[in-house]
Amino acid sequence: MKLFFNVNNSILKGILLLFLMLPSVVLAAAVPGQKAPEFSVVDAAGKTHNLSDYTGQWLVIEWFNKDCPYVRKHYGSGNMQSLQKRYTAQKVNWLTVISSAKGKQGYLEPEQAMAVAQSHNLGASVPFLLDTSGVMGRAYGAKTTPHMFIINPQGEVVYAGAIDDNDSANPAVLGSSHNYVSAALDASLKGLAVPKSSSRAYGCSVKY
Questions:
Q1: Which CA distances in Å does 175 have to 29, 172, 193, 198?
Q2: Hey, which bits of the chain come out as E strands?
Q3: 22: helix, coil or strand?
Q4: CA distances from 11 to 15, 23, 25, 107 (A)
Q5: pLDDT tens digits, residue range 2-34?
Q6: Is the peptide bond before 110 cis (omega within 30 degrees of 0)?
Q7: What is the pLDDT of residues 62-96, one digit of tens each?
Q8: CB neighbour list of residue 22: distance below 8 Å, 6 or more residues apart
């Protein structure tokens, strides 16, 4: 009887510990209206980026995989670069994150990432963060490439989700698509409410 009690007591303790851990797991995601998760990730050029570096500034975070057809849709057409150029010119910071683990699709060594950035006509204002451990991706709840997040100067998430409302990989649909990111930024930069703060992200799964 004593042995039975001890075994069950151990199980109960394990269950209790699991439930105590669950809130931190649930909250480990970038949720509109809440503070953005902290991060500290080195980019392809060797510079470390922390969330605190962007205190008091607007920040867009985008998940990237060069081999994903949905990423190619936005980069091959120049759509993503156009957004980056438009908003970095308005003092909005933009970080592109690669969370692909080594040996998986989209993984890039630093020199490869620099070459890809150059081939995509990306300047130093849009650095590639190499999150090969997936720590940042999991903290933000990044599920797809692309997956977009907008953080305001107070460090709060104001948008999380897809780049637009058309989940086709065909770039021909871009002209008739509604861009959630630009709509959120345009409203936010004018001090207005974001028309849509979240959406279902589409694309290729992040290769953790």
A1: 31, 7, 25, 21
A2: 40-42, 48-50, 58-63, 92-98, 128-130, 144-145, 148-151, 157-161, 204-205
A3: helix
A4: 6, 20, 21, 40
A5: 444 344 454 544 443 433 333 333 335 899 999
A6: no
A7: 999 999 999 999 999 999 999 999 999 999 999 99
A8: none
Q: Which sign does the torsion angle of CA 199, 182, 49, 123 carry?
A: positive
Task: pLDDT band for 184, please (50, 70, 90 cuts).
Answer: very high
- Let me know the angle formed at the C-alpha of 73 by 94 and 81, rounded to the nearest 5 degrees: 30
CA distance 189 to 79: 20
Q: Which domains does the chain have, with CATH numbers?
A: 29-205 (3.40.30.10)
- Prediction pTM value: 0.86
Q: Which residues have CB under 8 Å from 164's CB, separation 6+?
A: 174, 177, 178, 179, 180, 181
Q: Is the dihedral of CA 61, 149, 33, 30 positive or negative?
A: negative
46 three-class SS:
coil
